[in-house]
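User: I'm designing a mutation panel for Exocyst complex component Sec3 PIP2-binding N-terminal domain-containing protein and want to avoid disrupting the core. Could you give me a predicted structure to guide residue selection? Please restate the sequence first so the numbering is unambiguous.

Assistant: Good idea. Sequence first, for numbering, then the predicted structure tokens:
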Amino acid sequence: MLEQLRQVNGIDPNRDSAEFDLLFENAFDQWVASTASEKCTFFQILHHTCQRYLTDRKPEFINCQSKIMGGEWAFV
């Protein structure tokens, strides 16, 4: 469930990579999108969805290009 998502890790914001990690309350998943562009689109939709529907605890987005979240580079 979306409420269990704790962290979205883009792995390396300086390189076009399709790999990323999702950390949930009780699980850690490594993913590979079809393309780096598809990963970026997924992150944008996921970030927007979390901002809109999660009120208490929003996941941390790390090692993601800030254009995904609408700011400068996001290094955490």
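For picking mutation sites, this is relevant: The radius of gyration is 12 Å. Strands lie at 5-9, 19-24, 28-32, 60-62.
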